[in-house]
Design a protein that fits this description.
There is one protein chain. The chain is an alpha+beta fold and 74 residues long. The protein has a domain at 13-60. The chain contains three helices and three strands. A three-stranded antiparallel β-sheet has the order 1-3-2. A hairpin with a 2-residue loop joins β2 (42-44) and β3. α1 packs across α2 (27-35). The longest helix is centred in the middle third of the chain and has 9 residues, at 27-35. The chain is globular. It starts with 12 loop residues before the first strand and ends in a 14-residue tail after the last helix.
């Protein structure tokens, strides 16, 4: 396996909006998945991020959640 050069960027975590785009779901759906505990986030300097490893785990497990929390009547 080739290591990336110092000039290349290795993406290991994404902001929530980018993670939602990767999963092709709305940001609100991603927030509900996080609230349900189906997707875990990490806090990096006051920013809540989703790791690529966590997205891969979620997808490998089928990307399915039995029941999402209600969306608050909007």
């Amino acid at each position: 396996m080739r290591m990336p050069s110092p000039d290349q960027h290795l993406v290991v975590a994404l902001p929530r909006a980018a993670a939602a785009r990767v999963l092709r779901v709305s940001l609100r759906t991603l927030e509900r998945l996080i609230q349900a505990g189906a997707i875990k986030t990490v806090l990096v300097s006051r920013r809540r991020l989703v790791t690529v490893k966590e997205l891969n785990r979620f997808l490998a497990e089928g990307g399915y959640v039995e029941e999402l929390p209600e969306h608050g009547g909007r």
